[in-house]
Give the backbone structure.
Amino acid sequence: MPTDLSTLPQEPGVAKPDPILVVDDMRKRFGGIVAVDVDHLEVQRGIVTALIGPNGAGKTTFFNVLTGFDRPDSGHAEFDGQSIDNASPHKLAKRGMVRTFQLTKSLTKLPVIENMKLGATHQRGENFARALVTPMWRAQEAEIEKRGEVLLDRFNLAHMRDEYAGSLSGGQRKLLEMSRALMADPRLVMLDEPMAGVNPALKQSLLNHVRGLKDEGISVVFVEHDMDVVQGISDWVVVMALGAIIAEGPPDAIAQNELVIDAYLGAHHDEPLDLEEAEVWLPDDNGEEE
Amino acid sequence: MQAVFGAVDWGFIIDQSLNEGFDINAIVYALAAIGLNVHFGYAGLLNFGQVGFVAMGAYGMGLAVTLWGANPFLAVLVGVLFAVVFALLLGIPTLRLRADYLAIVTIAAAEIVRLIARSTAMRNITRGAEGLNEFIGPFRELNPFDPSQIYGLGPFQWRGNSFFVIIVGWTLIALFLWLVWQLMRSPWGRVVKAIREDEDAARALGKSAYWYKMQALILGGVIGGFAGMILALGNATVQPDYYVAPLTFFFWLVLILGGVGRVWSPVVGSILFWISITFVQNLGRQLVDNGIISTSIMDSTQIDQIRYWVVGIALALLMVYRPQGIFGSREEMALDAH
């Protein structure tokens, strides 16, 4: 099933055969800083897309804007052919676009299984009036619980079922957050640095889980720093620097891309980048900034 | 010891204390604290103006009778409506913001309610500082008990009029305890508790944090409104200057004493609060009256202050040795520390 993207031109904003997410002219500024400045981006359905870039490239802000946690100054985005401009986060989640956070948001004072059950959308018992009448939601609750248990088992958390989520380790919280996102039956999962702060052994298991999502037909976008991680797991890589998309392509091609090495690794190893260099990379817009 | 305390009438003190533990005041505090528990204990909403909801309930019910001659059931409905409107007024501008904004707005809004109610400009409607005193009639007509008779057992004896309000009050408490228990074991409660923990996590999972917080604010506010209605019925009056800001903190005290986020804690907290405060007051009065405590140390007018000292010290000790309150879970508290 994996779509072959190797024949696509490797340039920023390239059109994909079957995009699940399309972004146009999206801008977000914080004071004088341009955090997001994306002309055009398409995310292919059914694959794992990595969003990489050096610190401060605007990856998380871009995520926040796309998932409704932040408002763009301008721009347009479509999810599965329908506009998601001005959509609030909870509506996006209900429509099948679920995100996780860089700093895990386990609900520490709820047991692990309750965390899972919360993830299910369209619960009858979440309505105030129906919540008062147990028979209205008991059957659905049991079904959701079963689904949660199956997922916990798959993510190696079954033994923690009844523990408070606050007693999980950092890595387990990442697993919990990912599996909880799946409870919503998403079509697109947006993972914000799923590997951050996770030990190497667990990293491998997380990678396998991300690949597992793809095998289920779920599209994945994830933010990552580490180029090695990206190599092993992603089908397509999008590189951001200074808020803009500077390159796109399959992982091995990106690893050799001159611009990427400069922006990403170069900036890391040599010296902090200055404005003149930035202008060279971003010929369109950034040159005319005040 | 025997010589010192021999003159103290322990039976009377204990009877008085137990009686107060189940009297109108205890009911009012319990209801207000049940509302606060919904707000803070479950939804994480910092409401420092619960007394405003109590006042809205009392005034809504009273005004419905004095202004429009409403029948008792309609009057109660108006009281509920007042509390709902107050919740909307507070919630709409603040619930999208961080938790502290609600705290600031509630404490101010509760004072605004009191100041408007007692203002001379409103004299034709709220009777200003005089308060509402002519609404009790229609409610008394519903009273099946004989006002001249005494009802009840042991220390729990009241005259007919009070007895009626106390029965209604405890029925309401039972009803709202069931409501809170049922809601908090339902998926609705799960969403509310999730929002208390981390609003963004709940939003990312498809729950409208704003709407659930609004529902919780309204629910807790309406329960607070019923506290005001019971108070008004028990005292047969609505006095604006009863609804002062410190009252809110007594509701908080009652909640924390019982343990935040537990169904029973507001009720047990309120009963214990009223028993202990009455006990200290009566004991103090007898010790002074019998000359056991010399008037050079304390006279009977100072007992009212002393009783709050004693309760304050007791609460401080509770916080040191049992910070989760009577019913709270220490394990859950420890999770905050990470």
